[in-house]
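Record filed below.
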Amino acid sequence: MSQTTTTQTATMPTSSSPPSAIAILSQPITLPCGLTLPNRLVKCPMQETQAKGPYFNPPIETFKNLYSLWARSSYGLLITGQVQIDRRFLSIAGDVCCHEGSLEPDTLGLWKEWARIAQKDGTPCIVQLAHPGRMSPAGAGIRPKEMRALCPSEVPVQLGDTWLDKLALDKVLGTPKAMTIEDVDEVVGMFVRGAVVARDAGFAGAQLHGAHGYLLSQFLSLHTNRRTDDYGGTPEKRMKLLQRLIYEIRALCPPPYCLSVKLNSADYMDAGRGLEIEEGLEQVRWLRECGMIDFVEISGGNAEQKHSGLHNSFGAKTVASGQKMKESTRIREAFYTDFADRVMQMKSDVPVQLSGGFRTRTGMADAVHSGTCDLIGLGRSAVLEPEIPRAVLLNPDFDDEGALAKSHVVRGQWFSKMIPVKVIGGGLPIQFFYYNLRRLGRGLKSDPDISIPSMIAVSLWETVSSGLLQTLQRLVAAFSGGQRVKME
């Protein structure tokens, strides 16, 4: 069990009775940097896809709706959606970016307003900093057409086996450029700049995105890192970029600034094609023992499946039946919980956050109470039910049987399966969550019932109507003698 020191404010029962699920989740926790989180529920980083080029600054007009909603919903911590560190290389159109002008007064003012909105009700918020590396698609950022995406080594993405898959991947991602030492140095400077912008804006800290096959994960991986210099060739050298970032950020952002790292257990599964499990555990061990990291987030599976071992303390749960789980999903989720268990066997005061599949109050409380993790990450629930901590999970008006996130399956997935190109069809279900994040940004409620075909139709109509509006505005400007007309 984690040895993290906690400051408990919730009323706890006597030693003769087990603590209630709400009491466990309501326990504050003080991180090594001194930052105290009011409870154990964390809003996971999710891409809002609302920023506009060419600078991709924080879109305050929509963030004031989105982050105000999360701010008043009683999370213990908010982690922003991905903030890319280089506007040439985004992971998807609409990513917020920290760029060369972000410390200028006008732009930093936008960042300060974002931090103020997110933290106005007392919940701390940290900024997730990311670089997609070889996962940056053409057209998402401002890089010239001839500029290739970056990777530790020249290893292209493989997704799908048909000639259409290969053609689409070549057009969208292409073969990445193996980074030079100068490229590495530039990336380090950009990550450090992002951390400083978060600090100067008033955020509580930053998280380094080392998961999901992004650039930091690519350096950690034996498959994508085939270098023979100081940044590859041995497990220690594959860690050098991440370690360098931590050292250099900490030199400029000491405590109480919070510094976190996100990893994904699925990245450690395939021997020879990803990160070996023992090497991965040593990476986590270094993070938890280096004295500079305040918590490690691990995502990658569904923590409430029966094989996860989280059904011990609180008995049966009211969980609606979902789709039959694929064998590959079942294997991944078993690996996820086994990996998390081995991480928590390490003796360390650095908390661990598990993100993935938590739905029930009792499952979350059991994970914390049993020492499986210290913090609970809420991702898709924070999109479909953004107020769920205050409204349900920490609300005593709901008993344990009824305190759970709604079971949800994205409708219309048959449509994505009809598309013969995997890189396109396989990405449609996640667009459902981007769509609903944009709804929340406009001050609307999530629409959990919209299907993939309907979502595509709505998005196409919005694109066309927006184009018609801008054309009309330009015509009005022309006939009015060239006066400036505001473009939305």
About this structure: The first helix runs from residue 21 to 25. The first strand starts at residue 29 and ends at 30. Residues 155 and 224 are 6 Å apart (CA to CA). The mean pLDDT is 84.
